[in-house]
Specification:
Elements: H1 4-13, H2 18-24, H3 29-37, H4 44-54, H5 58-61, H6 70-77, H7 82-91, H8 98-102, H9 109-130
């Protein structure tokens, strides 16, 4: 079930009014209001557009998870390892790895941590070769 509260929270995080969000999505502010209040639910295409616009997963918008996106999920998986977390904070913006981050959605947190450790080992090895 679509979470209107989450849509409202995301909209407010971007400092957008219902009118502004409606213009972005070629719909009325009344429609946005009905989504946020749970009176109406957007169709799957609109949910996907909201997810892309707000950089969250559709599962987050549907209330299936409390994790907004895969980057947040990865951060949570490694938050107990300061060195990995620092590495992740530089790694997560690399466009060449974006597809890989999307593939982590079905992995367990321990598996995610192992993958980040492997990437770090490769990066460390590459840096030592360059020096």
């Amino acid at each position: 079930m679509f979470s209107g509260d989450r849509l409202k929270h995301l909209r407010l995080e971007k400092n957008l009014t219902q009118i502004e969000l409606g213009k972005i999505f070629n719909t009325s502010h009344a429609t946005i209001n009905r989504y946020e209040k749970g009176v109406n639910e957007p169709d799957s295409e609109t949910i996907n557009k909201f997810a892309d616009f707000f950089n969250v997963s559709t599962d987050y918008l549907l209330g299936r998870t409390n994790t907004k996106n895969n980057k947040e999920r990865i951060s949570h998986a490694i938050n107990d390892d300061v060195e990995l977390l620092e590495f992740w904070n530089t790694l997560k913006e690399r466009p060449d790895l974006q597809l890989m981050f999307k593939q982590t959605k079905d992995l367990k947190e321990n598996d995610i941590k192992q993958i980040i450790k492997i990437i770090k080992a490769f990066e460390d090895e590459e840096a030592s070769i360059e020096d």
